[in-house]
Design a protein that fits this description.
The chain is mainly beta. It has one helix spanning 2-24, and strands at residues 33-46, 58-71, 76-91, 96-111, 117-127, 132-135, 141-145, 151-161, 167-179, 198-215, 218-229, 237-247, 252-262, 271-283. The strands form two sheets. It has a twelve-stranded antiparallel β-barrel with strand order 1-2-3-4-5-8-9-10-11-12-13-14. Strands 6-7 form a two-stranded antiparallel sheet. A hairpin with a 2-residue loop joins strand 10 (198-215) and strand 11. The chain is flat.
C-alpha cells in the first residue's frame, strides 16, 4: 500500500512539473501562468568574551521561501501555493538545533459556474527536510522524525464558497494519508495488533483562508483546516495558522506567526508553535 501511494503521488508531481515546464519554456506564446516567489532570511548572533554580567554565545537563522503559481482562464482557476522553511539555533555549547522545518505544497482547482459557490478539487502535502529531536532534562536527544517521515497527503473534492477576494472557504469529501518508515507512531493504529507504517482515512475536510492586505505595508493572513475521519468522527484533526507581516522598508519585514495543531492520532495535547522574526525579504518573481 505504501509503495502504491508513493507511486501515485510521484506520478502526480511529475505530471504537474511537465505541465509547468511546457508553459514556461514556450517562448513564442505568452504563458497563462502568473508566478510569485518571495525569499526571506533572518539571522541573529551574540558573542561574549570575559563578559562579567554573564551570557552565552548564540547564533540563529531561519530561511523561508514562499510562492504562488496561478492559471486563471475564463472557465476555471488552478492555484498552486508552496512554502519551504528551515531554521537552526546554537546556544552556548549545545550545538545547532532545529527551530523551524516545513515543506508544504497545495494545489487547488476551481471550476467557475458564475456563482459564489463553485466545485473544486484540491491536494496538499506536508512534511519536513531534516531529522527532529526532543531533549530531556539531561540534554539527551531522542530522534522523533526525519525527512519524509512522517509525510501527510490530503486530497478532496467538494464545494468552494468565495464571497470576496480576501476570503474563501471550502467543504468536501477527503482522503488523508500518513506515510512513515521508521517513526510509525504517527500512522499506527493502536487498536490493531500489527504496526502500520501507513494510515489512509476517508472523511470530511473544511478549509477556510483569509488574506487581508490592510495596506501596502501590512498583511494579515489566516488559515483554518479541519479533517474529520468517518471511522473516528470524534477525533477531528485541527490545524490553524495565522500571521502578520509588516513591511518596514522595501526589503526589511517583521513577521509574527502562530501555528496551532490538534491531532489526536499523534498526541492528545494541543501543539503550539509561535515565531517572531525580522529579516530581509526579496521578491524573486
Amino acid at each position: 500500500m505504501r509503495t502504491t501511494l508513493l507511486t501515485i503521488h510521484t506520478i502526480a508531481i511529475l505530471a504537474f512539473a511537465r505541465i509547468s515546464i511546457a508553459q514556461t519554456t514556450d517562448t513564442t506564446k505568452h504563458s497563462p501562468w502568473t508566478h510569485t516567489v518571495v525569499a526571506n532570511l533572518n539571522v541573529s548572533e551574540a558573542s561574549y568574551t570575559n563578559w562579567s554580567a554573564g551570557g552565552e554565545n548564540a547564533l540563529a537563522y531561519t530561511a523561508l521561501l514562499t510562492g504562488k503559481s496561478e492559471d486563471n482562464p475564463v472557465s476555471a482557476t488552478w492555484t498552486n501555493t508552496y512554502k519551504f522553511a528551515f531554521g537552526q539555533a546554537r546556544l552556548g555549547d549545545h550545538g545547532l538545533r532545529k527551530t523551524d522545518d516545513e515543506m508544504s505544497i497545495q494545489s487547488l482547482f476551481k471550476y467557475k459556474l458564475d456563482s459564489l459557490v463553485n466545485p473544486y478539487a484540491a491536494a496538499t502535502f506536508i512534511s519536513q527536510f531534516a531529522p527532529g529531536y526532543v531533549y530531556d532534562a539531561h540534554d539527551s536527544a531522542t530522534q522523533v522524525s526525519k525527512f519524509f517521515d512522517p509525510a501527510y497527503f490530503t486530497e478532496s473534492i467538494g464545494a468552494l464558497y468565495q464571497p470576496s477576494k480576501i476570503f474563501k472557504t471550502r467543504l468536501g469529501a477527503a482522503l488523508r494519508e500518513i506515510i512513515t518508515s521508521q517513526f510509525t507512531n504517527y500512522a499506527d493504529d493502536p487498536s490493531t495488533p500489527q504496526i502500520e507504517s501507513t494510515r489512509v482515512e476517508a472523511g470530511l475536510e473544511s478549509v477556510s483562508e483569509l488574506t487581508w492586505p490592510i495596506d501596502d505595508n501590512l498583511l494579515i493572513s489566516s488559515k483554518l483546516e479541519f479533517f474529520a475521519p468517518l471511522k473516528h468522527f470524534d477525533q477531528i484533526v485541527t490545524r490553524s495558522e495565522s500571521g502578520i507581516a509588516a513591511k518596514i522598508t522595501k526589503v526589511v519585514v517583521v513577521n509574527l506567526n502562530a501555528l496551532i495543531l490538534n491531532d489526536p492520532t499523534v498526541t492528545p495535547r494541543t501543539q503550539v508553535k509561535q515565531t517572531l522574526s525580522i529579516g530581509v525579504t526579496y521578491t524573486i518573481l
